Amino acid sequence: MSVLDVRSHMERKFPEGFYWGAATSSFQTEGGIENMDWAQAAREGKVPPIGRACDFYNRYESDFDIAKKLGHNCHRISIEWSRIEPEEGKFDEKEVEHYLKVLAALRARHIKPFITIWHFTLPLWFSESGGFERKDSPEIFARYCGFVAKKLGNDCRHFATINEPLPYTTNGWVRGSWPPFKEVPGLGWALAHIPGHREIQKRPSWVNVWRYFRVRKHLARAHNLAYDAIKTNAFGAEVGIVHQVILFHADGNPFNKLLAWFMNWFWTHSFLMHIYRKCDSIGINYYLHKKFGDTAVYKKTDMGWDVYPEGLCGALLMVKRYGKPVWVAEAGVADADDDMRADYITRLIRCMHTAIQQGVDLRGYMYWSLFDNYELAHGYSKRFGLVEVDYDTLERRIRPSAYVFKEIIERNALVD
Ligand code: BGC
Questions:
Q1: Predicted pLDDT of residue 192
Q2: Residue 163 forms beta bridges with which residues?
Q3: 164-189: average pLDDT
Q4: Which helix (H) or strand (E) holds 139?
Q5: How far apart are CA 380 and CA 377, in angstroms?
Q6: Residues 161 and 145: beta-carbon distance below 8 Å
Q7: What is the pLDDT of residues 38-66, one digit of tens each?
């Protein structure tokens, strides 16, 4: 038997109790949410209409049946702030009931719920009064998180406060492509080559640099206050954040190496260093890498992003220094034809295994996303789902790659 034969049967076992599943977010899937900033932006023609999305609000039972069928043992949802707190300080118990039913539906299928309390969308009363530029925004956010924890804390143990503070602030205050559509002069243009940039509005102003850093500071404080609020209201909850890690790396050139070091510090560490003490675990989302000085030509995803799942390993090692349990809260690929997804997932999982062997305390992986959904400024044109959604009939069709993932889940191992 040659070395290659041996390798081809190598089994990469995952730790007992490893969690496998998928992630979704409220506004990208539920449908019918009108009272928030993205819906308002859609009415103004600045982002594509959201409408009924995948109607997940009404179809979660059958969608969780699919997740179960695919072997998932965990699932990440987000709570829609504008449903829970439609007016400042007024909370809607009916919507709390809804999310309790969603959690019960997961429990009934033995799927462990993970809640992200805030995933990009703001209730209108908050966004129109300044959103996270407001000085008191951290307190407002913590009050909302405390309420959610109090109501849902008996039914869910895992909470993340904020999804992706860096893309949120960068797209909102530098590129001007997401609400509140503020742009730093020149920078929106300079970043426009990045696929996904949408030409709209703009309100370019240098003051947005100051606002950008102000919002980042407020988000860090919001997380820290929310951590305490959740802990107080949900005894024994595990609280973390979901942070997008872009892997910046470089060829051998010292200048490029320095640049990569700086960018990793700026994008990942300069935020996490302010909040990791108030994190029981850290969730990371991985989609992007940038190798300075690299001339390689990469295959592209439907988003125009490099097919480079191997970057996840470096991304995981980057957060190892915080000494916390880690979750891959999102990683996935837009691939309408489903001809690269299975390979992409397999390669991601191989990286996870390597990272575990190198000492990362990785606890689980949630693929983005269970089904196709509203892909932010791209609307419904990009398809990340393990499950295809027909937006005319809302019919769901499981893609072949979902079964490849299922096989890995069932073995709790990757065989290659
Ligand atoms: C976000 C998701 C988004 C995904 C793919 C992540 O940045 O959390 O909301 O759909 O990336 O772009």
A1: 56
A2: 242
A3: 89
A4: helix 137-152
A5: 9
A6: yes
A7: 999 999 999 999 999 999 999 999 999 99
- Looking at residue 203, its pLDDT comes to 67
Q: Is 362 helix (H, G, I), strand (E, B) or coil?
A: strand
Q: What is the pLDDT of residues 351-374, one digit of tens each?
A: 999 999 999 999 999 999 999 999
Cβ within 8 Å of residue 4, ≥6 positions away: none
pLDDT digits over 82-137, tens only? 999 999 999 999 999 999 999 999 999 999 999 999 999 999 999 999 999 999 99
Q: In one letter, which amino acid is 358?
A: Q
Q: How many helices and strands in the chain, by DSSP H and E?
A: 16, 16
Binding site membership of 375 for ligand 1 (Cβ less than 6 Å): yes
30 lines ligand 1 (CB under 6 A): no
How many angstroms separate the Cα of 140 from the Cα of each of 80, 102, 146, 213, 246?
15, 25, 10, 19, 29
Q: State whether the beta carbon of 24 lies less than 6 angstroms from ligand 1.
A: no
Rounded CA-CA distance 81/91 in Å is 10
CA dihedral 49, 53, 58, 60 (to 10 degrees): -150
pLDDT reported for residue 189: 57
User: Is the CB of 330 within 6 Å of ligand 1?
Assistant: yes
Ligand 1 atom showing the smallest separation from residue 376 Cα? 10
Q: Distance between CA 179 and CA 199 in Å, rounded?
A: 13
Please work out whether the CB of residue 26 comes within 6 Å of at least one atom of ligand 1: no
**In angstroms, rounded to a whole number, what is the distance separating the alpha carbons of residues 40 and 119?**
16
CA-closest residue to ligand 1 atom 10: 375
**235 exposure class (CB count in 10 Å sphere: 0-12, 13-18, 19+):** exposed
CB contact set of 249 (below 8 Å; sequence gap of 6+): 260, 289, 290, 291, 292, 311, 314
Which candidate, 350, 306, 303, 300, places its Cα nearest to that of 328?
350
Q: What are the tens digits of pLDDT across the range 255-311? A: 999 999 999 999 999 999 999 999 999 999 999 999 999 999 999 999 999 999 999
Q: Ligand 1: distance of its center to the CA of 2 in Å?
A: 43
**Phi, then psi, of 161 in degrees rounded to 5:** -75, -55
Rounded Cα distance, 32 and 82, in Å: 11
